[in-house]
Sequence to fold (124 residues):
Amino acid sequence: MVVSAVTTGADGPDEIESFGGEKLDWLPKFADFESGIPSHDTITRALPLTKPAAFQKAPLQWHAHLCEINWDHPSKDDDRPVPVAIDGKTARGSYTDAEKSDAIHIASVWATENGVTLAQSKAD
Fold:
C-alpha cells in the first residue's frame, strides 16, 4: 500500500492512509486488509522499521524478472551486453560552504531499453 501510495504522489502517513481508504476495493488483491487500512499512526511507526537496502532490492528483482519475460532486444539470445546509461548529477543548492565542496552528488544507472532507473545512490 505504501509503495503504491507514494508512487502516485502521497506525501506522508496521512496521505498514505487516505490513499488506502480510496483504494480499499483494489488493495486486497495484494495483501490482507481484513482489519481495514492501517491508521496514519501505525504507518508512522512501521516506516522506520523498513530496511532501505532490502526495500531497494525488491523492485530491482521485480524489474529483472519483467525484463526476462518481456525483453525483445536483438541481443536477447546472444552474449552481447545489455545497454545501460550511467549519469551523475549535483543537487543544486545542496552545499553549505563557500567552496561548494560538500554538495550532494548522485549517480544513477538507467536501463535504456526498458526506461527504468536500476540504481541511484549518493556519491562520496
User: Anything to note?
Assistant: Residues 10 and 70 are 29 Å apart (CA to CA). The mean pLDDT is 83. The first strand starts at residue 84 and ends at 90.
